[in-house]
């Protein structure tokens, strides 16, 4: 398994579960829409994530929540490029761009992003070619349908088998475009065209993805599956999200994508101590 990724000159270590902090520069994301529209607030959030132990931050300018409408490439660029540029100048950690658009990929990497996180797995016209030319790592995510309709009536013959088949097809498309296996991560896409039952089965069987030979990125932070289990609104899903992050790490996830960085880092330190058998030294 890959031990690290070169993200545009900044190294993302994967030997321990890495925490990816989410910064949505959008007015309509399900959890933090409108929170980080100003550059100052986005930078303050990035600084808090760095202090909290984030290994990478993920910047997105288009909501992919269920029912979300798309935005133009120009509007997405206006949202994300100033934030990526400012974070790259101020903090020494990798930056991911959460986008499906080739133009946004190119401009974001030029501004300092070092990883492409694509919910459409490079299926948009020109995306796979752009990613190949840029030379940075890519996360391929599974999504059944599109954000506007993905939760209408998702169906699978075998949720893990069907997702693995889709991801293998996208890996093959990347290989054909010249993207090496050492540049790829896979995300099964929790909550993207999946019922609660699909999500729970997917997490129980997450280790079945390891035979594909790629690091796994998992994003469940604050999602509706937590709300359905606990009957909690978005702003009261931290504890459920921590439990899911630890379960994912125990199942071998290489990266967990979260909104609550510091709390997740603490939870994973306890996970690592138990898994590795290392005693935890008291700090005071």
Topology record:
Layout: E1 4-7, E2 10-13, E3 18-24, H1 39-52, E4 56-60, H2 73-90, E5 95-98, H3 102-111, E6 115-118, H4 127-134, E7 138-141, H5 159-177, E8 184-187, H6 196-204, E9 217-218, H7 224-230, H8 238-250, E10 255-258, H9 261-276
Parallel strand pairs: 3-4, 3-10, 4-5, 5-6, 6-7, 7-8, 9-10
Antiparallel strand pairs: 1-2
Helix pairs in contact: 1-2, 1-9, 2-3, 3-4, 8-9
Gyration radius, in Å? 18 Å
Assembly category: single chain
In one word, what is the shape? Answer: globular
What percent of the residues sit in helical stretches (DSSP H or I)? Answer: 40-55%
Q: By helix and strand content, what is the structural category?
A: alpha/beta
Helix and strand element order:
EEEHEHEHEHEHEHEHHEH
Mean pLDDT score, rounded?
Answer: 92
Q: Can you tell me the CATH class of the domain at 4-17 and 100-276?
A: Alpha Beta
In short:
This protein is of the alpha/beta class and 284 residues long.
Could you explain how this protein is built, in words?
It is built from nine helices and ten strands. By secondary structure, it is of the alpha/beta class. The longest helix is centred in the middle third of the chain and has 19 residues, at 159-177. α3 (102-111) links the parallel β5 and β6. The chain has a domain at 4-17 and 100-276: Alpha-Beta Barrel (TIM Barrel).
């Amino acid at each position: 398994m890959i031990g690290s990724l070169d993200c545009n000159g900044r190294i993302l270590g994967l030997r321990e579960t890495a925490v990816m902090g989410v910064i949505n520069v959008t007015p309509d994301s399900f959890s933090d829409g409108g929170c980080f529209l100003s550059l100052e607030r986005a930078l303050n959030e990035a600084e808090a994530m760095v202090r909290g132990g984030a290994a990478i931050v993920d910047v997105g300018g288009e909501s992919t929540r269920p029912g979300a409408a798309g935005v133009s490439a120009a509007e997405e660029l206006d949202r994300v490029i100033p934030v990526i540029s400012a974070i790259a100048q101020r903090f020494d950690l990798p930056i991911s761009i959460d986008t499906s658009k080739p133009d946004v990929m190119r401009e974001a990497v030029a501004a300092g992003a070092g990883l492409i996180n694509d919910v459409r797995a490079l299926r948009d016209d020109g995306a796979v070619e752009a990613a190949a030319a840029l030379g940075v790592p890519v996360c391929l995510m599974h999504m059944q349908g599109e954000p506007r309709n993905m939760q209408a009536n998702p169906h699978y013959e075998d949720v893990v088998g069907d997702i693995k088949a889709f991801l293998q097809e996208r890996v093959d498309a990347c290989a054909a475009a010249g993207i090496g296996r050492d540049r790829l991560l896979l995300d099964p896409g929790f909550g993207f065209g999946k019922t609660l039952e699909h999500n729970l089965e997917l997490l129980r069987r997450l280790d079945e993805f390891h035979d594909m030979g790629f690091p796994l990125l998992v994003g469940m932070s604050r999602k509706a599956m937590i709300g359905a289990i606990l009957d909690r609104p978005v702003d009261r899903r931290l504890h459920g999200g921590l439990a899911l992050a630890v379960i994912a790490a125990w199942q071998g996830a290489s990266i967990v994508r979260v909104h609550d960085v510091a709390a997740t880092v603490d939870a994973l330190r306890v996970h690592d101590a138990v898994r590795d058998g290392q005693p935890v030294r008291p700090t005071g």
